[in-house]
Specification:
This protein is mainly alpha-helical. It has one domain. Helix content is 62%, strand content 0%. The protein has five helices and no strands. Helix 1 crosses helix 3, helix 1 runs antiparallel to helix 4 and helix 2 packs antiparallel against helix 3. The longest helix is centred in the last third of the chain and has 37 residues. The radius of gyration is 33 Å and the shape is elongated. 24% of the residues are buried. The model has no long low-confidence stretch (mean pLDDT 77). Keywords: Membrane, Transmembrane, Transmembrane helix. It comes from Rhodococcus jostii. This is Integral membrane protein.
């Protein structure tokens, strides 16, 4: 039995979830009072969000609804917050109420954005292909026969035809 074929938007969904989780985890973390991450925290966050995006892209087709996106983004926000708190941060692993509200709002907004992007993917790709392909142009059926120019002096034409172009060059 062969594995189920992934949806056409699976890569789009996984990439969008990974990128949005990373960007909005940093933004919600900063808005909630956590500050901007240092390089070690940012590296750990990017690895975590890449994993969340890859797992989201491989989900079966029955998990492609908006609730599944909310779940994937929620898990991603939690994993992103945890990745940001593993380094030298001044707050605890359990987020404060403003930070929790910022993470929740970011999760809901991102789920709506990704769901709409998935819904519009097919029509936008169709329009893009039509625009790039352009309207079909009719093929011209009129052909013109090539008539070589007749030399004014037939002797010159005979001499041109009799000159051999083969063989090595002769030194002069």
């Amino acid at each position: 039995m062969s594995p189920a074929r992934p949806a056409a938007t699976a890569t789009l969904r996984g990439s969008a979830v990974g990128a949005l989780v990373a960007a909005l985890a940093v933004a919600a973390h900063g808005i909630g009072g956590g500050g901007l991450p240092e390089s070690a925290a940012l590296t750990l966050l990017l690895v975590t969000c890449s994993g969340v995006g890859a797992v989201t892209a491989q989900l079966p087709a029955r998990f492609h609804g908006p609730l599944a996106l909310m779940g994937a983004l929620g898990v991603g926000q939690a994993a992103g917050h945890f990745a940001l708190t593993l380094t030298s941060h001044v707050h605890s692993v359990v987020p404060a109420l403003p930070m929790l509200a910022a993470h929740a709002a970011a999760t809901a907004i991102c789920a709506l954005l990704v769901a709409n992007a998935e819904r519009l993917y097919g029509p936008l790709v169709h329009v893009w292909r039509v625009v790039l392909r352009g309207a079909p142009q009719p093929v011209s059926a009129v052909t013109t026969a090539h008539v070589p120019a007749r030399p004014a002096n037939p002797v010159v034409a005979l001499l041109r035809a009799s000159i051999s172009r083969r063989g090595p060059p002769v030194p002069v």
